[in-house]
């Protein structure tokens, strides 16, 4: 049938009528070149569209308008037909004449009804159809074009067409049937509402209905289906969506809509609703959205809402939603390492706020919830106050956790044996790693990168004031102090200070001695610049920066000159580890006591190391990587060895080695792990990072730096 509902036309019938109406083209002159010439004229000189116009009435003189055949051939103004020089057979020429005329009388209603281009199939007639409006009949009909092969064969009568908006028209018709309640074969009942629908449409859109109607279940044969627990308005909206693809999202109905979409397994609707809720996240509603996403099994919504809650925890706990949470939800929040707070005390105070909102019913949950608080990390004064608090005094579980925390503070030398989940600091409370400068493929990195545990990524946060190699870095009052080094030509004594918050550099008073390859550390407030090389000789001198007086002063010198030395502070003493003295690498170590202003020798390492990375971690001193070679030998033997020094026993112990050798490696603790950053493996400047867990004695690969760098200074800054 045609789109107007009238009798279906037949292309072959058109051709037979066309042949009957016009004289046989073979009767023309042999020199005329066939029935068609350029610009669509016959050999007799009569334009094709004029000939069609003269035959627009039948033999009885009646105008031919009612039949689809004559509608196609009815002449109206239109574009000039295109020339087809490759057409040879009379059959093809005859078809082209009629179709060119139909192109003149046919005009698509809009740009969406242009002819679809199809690849020609040999031996097959290609017919493309689009509905166009008949101005006289007021109905739609098909615009037909043809592309025939140059030779006739038995399959020349085959044809196919494509309607470009067939699916849209079909669903629009189905929607009309729904509105008129015609051909509906199922009735969905939600509450007091009865919603008619077509099983085929519901099954095409919803996996839930597809499983219901295509399997041998009771509902497959019933005309009325009860939808228990589904909001009627939400169900009505989703049925309307099944026919139209249109859905209205409102803040006050989005949750019922998402719940219904989850039941009906409408994946696209679920994604759209989740995205809508994500855009509505706020500290006052994120906990509710988080719980709702969890209940509906929307994992992406749960993940995003949980992350938002963790990031904005301080604002979240000020809202009513937090105070109304059940104990099990509070436990989920308190157990997370990702809470964004400046210290553990903030989380403890949030718990107390929740308990006091309803003390009588929540007192019994206090012991369980207190197990998620890192009590050993609270200030000792606060712990002492809690011990005498009535809320804790009569609860044995609370008393047990308080005693554990008190021992952690009273016995610092035993802390390494008291490690537990409650002694592990949360990610946001430990600060961030900063990688400053170093040697890279461009012979001098000037970028500063920051690593955040919560985001697990390195980002560039600043630039140094020019190239500086073999310098030292220390942190005072959350500011970076860059000390000494060399620019490739000369050794420097300059000192610069970088503020990570303002990204501003400032010039500080210089050291008395030019130094590169020095070690820098902070001990009980002042900063120390230890050893190094002044461009002429290896140094054993040490300078101390007094932040109050803002000046450098010499202190006692080391017993051995050391360049590329590792320096760290531990238990109120300053340690200088390994390095080079001009003839070879060193395995000796000496420590400085600021109260006596004296250096003393300690037990040596098992291996000689220059360019060694040194840091304190869990009450021990660690020496990581480095190289061992005479000063003149640049093909150094690189080391993956890691040794641990116990100041109580004055002994070194070898622990798990690095995954690869690293010379000039940056070492620094962050949280409950020790990080080894960058370095040089003998071929490339490394961007790889690995971390050491003392409890498992294992190194783990971490997120790499953005660029490879050796000799970078690695420090921790905790910004409030």
UniProtKB/TrEMBL annotation:
Database matches in Gene3D superfamilies: 1.25.40.420, Kelch-type beta propeller (2.120.10.80), Potassium Channel Kv1.1, Chain A (3.30.710.10)
Signal peptide: none
Pfam families (UniProt xref): BACK, BTB, Kelch_1, Kelch_KLHDC2_KLHL20_DRC7
Region (Disordered): 46-70
A single cellular component GO annotation: cytoskeleton
Gene Ontology terms, MF aspect: actin binding
Keyword annotations from UniProtKB, A to Z: Actin-binding, Cytoplasm, Cytoskeleton, Kelch repeat, Repeat
Main location per the UniProt record: cytoplasm
Entry annotated with the keyword Repeat: yes
Classification via CDD domains: BACK_KLHL4 (cd18510), BTB_POZ_KLHL4 (cd18336)
Domain BTB residues, every copy: 184-251
InterPro entries hit by this protein: BACK (IPR011705), BTB/POZ_dom (IPR000210), Kelch-typ_b-propeller (IPR015915), Kelch_1 (IPR006652), SKP1/BTB/POZ_sf (IPR011333)
Domain of life: Eukaryota
Protein's cellular compartments: Cytoplasm, Cytoskeleton
Name used for this protein in its record: BTB domain-containing protein
């Amino acid at each position: 049938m045609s789109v107007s509902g009238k009798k279906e036309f037949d292309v072959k019938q058109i051709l037979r009528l066309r042949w009957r109406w016009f004289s046989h083209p073979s009767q023309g002159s042999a020199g005329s070149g066939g029935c068609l010439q350029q610009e669509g004229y016959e050999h007799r000189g009569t334009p094709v569209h004029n000939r069609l116009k003269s035959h627009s009435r039948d033999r009885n003189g009646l105008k031919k308008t009612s039949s689809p055949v004559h509608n196609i051939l009815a002449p109206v103004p239109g574009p000039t037909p295109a020339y087809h020089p490759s057409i040879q057979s009379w059959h093809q020429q005859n078809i082209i004449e009629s179709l060119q005329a139909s192109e003149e009388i046919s005009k698509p209603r809009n740009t969406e009804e242009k002819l679809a281009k199809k690849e020609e199939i040999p031996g097959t007639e290609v017919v493309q159809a689009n509905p166009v409006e008949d101005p006289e009949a007021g109905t739609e009909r098909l615009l037909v074009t043809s592309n025939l092969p140059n030779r006739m064969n038995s399959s020349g009568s085959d044809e196919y067409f494509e309607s470009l908006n067939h699916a849209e028209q079909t669903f629009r018709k189905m929607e009309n049937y729904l509105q008129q309640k015609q051909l509906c074969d199922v009735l969905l009942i939600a509450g007091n509402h009865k919603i008619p629908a077509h099983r085929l449409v519901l099954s095409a859109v919803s996996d839930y209905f597809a499983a219901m109607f295509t399997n041998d279940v009771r509902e497959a044969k019933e005309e009325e289906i009860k939808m228990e627990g589904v909001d009627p308005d939400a169900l009505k909206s989703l049925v309307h969506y099944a026919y139209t693809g249109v859905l209205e999202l409102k803040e006050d109905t989005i949750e019922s809509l998402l719940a219904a979409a989850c039941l009906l397994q409408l994946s696209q609707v679920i994604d759209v609703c989740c995205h809508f809720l994500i855009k509505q996240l706020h500290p006052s509603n994120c906990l509710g959205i988080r719980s709702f996403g969890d209940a509906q099994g929307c994992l992406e919504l749960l993940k995003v809402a949980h992350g938002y809650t963790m990031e904005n925890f301080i604002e979240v706990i000020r809202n009513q939603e937090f105070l109304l949470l059940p104990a099990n939800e509070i436990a989920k929040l308190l157990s997370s390492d990702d809470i964004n707070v400046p210290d553990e005390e903030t989380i403890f105070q949030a718990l107390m706020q929740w308990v006091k909102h309803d003390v009588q019913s929540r007192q019994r949950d206090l012991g369980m919830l207190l197990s998620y608080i890192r009590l050993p990390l609270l200030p000792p004064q606060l712990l002492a106050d809690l011990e005498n608090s009535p809320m804790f005094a009569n609860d044995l579980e609370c008393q047990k956790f308080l005693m554990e925390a008190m021992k952690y503070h009273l016995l610092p030398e035993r802390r390494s044996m008291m490690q537990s989940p409650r002694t592990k600091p949360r990610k946001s409370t430990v600060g961030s790693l900063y990688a400053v400068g170093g040697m890279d493929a461009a012979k001098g990195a000037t970028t500063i990168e920051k690593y955040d545990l919560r985001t697990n990524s390195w980002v560039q946060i600043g630039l140094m004031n020019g190239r500086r190699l073999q310098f030292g870095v220390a942190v005072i009052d959350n500011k970076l102090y860059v000390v000494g080094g060399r620019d490739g030509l000369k050794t420097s004594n300059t000192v610069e200070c970088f503020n990570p918050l303002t990204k501003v550099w400032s010039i500080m008073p210089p050291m008395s001695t030019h130094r590169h390859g020095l070690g820098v550390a902070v001990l009980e407030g002042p900063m120390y610049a230890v050893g190094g090389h002044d461009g002429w000789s290896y140094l054993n001198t040490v300078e101390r920066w007094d932040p109050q007086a803002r000046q450098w002063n010499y202190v006692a010198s080391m017993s051995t000159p050391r360049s590329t030395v590792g320096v760290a502070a531990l238990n109120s003493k300053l340690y200088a580890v390994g390095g080079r003295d001009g003839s070879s690498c060193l395995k000796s170590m000496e420590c400085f006591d600021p109260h006596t202003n004296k250096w003393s020798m300690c037990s040596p390492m098992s291996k000689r190391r220059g360019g060694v990375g040194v840091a304190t971690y869990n009450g021990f001193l660690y020496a990581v990587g480095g190289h061992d070679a005479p000063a003149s030998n640049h093909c150094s033997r690189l080391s993956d060895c890691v040794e641990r020094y116990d100041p109580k026993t004055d002994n070194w112990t070898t622990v798990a080695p690095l995954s690869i050798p690293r010379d000039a490696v940056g070492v620094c603790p962050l949280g409950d792990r020790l990080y080894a950053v960058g370095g040089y493996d003998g071929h490339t400047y490394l961007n790889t990072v690995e971390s050491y867990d003392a409890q498992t004695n294992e190194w783990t690969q971490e997120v790499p730096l953005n660029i490879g760098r050796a000799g970078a200074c690695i420090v921790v800054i905790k910004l409030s």
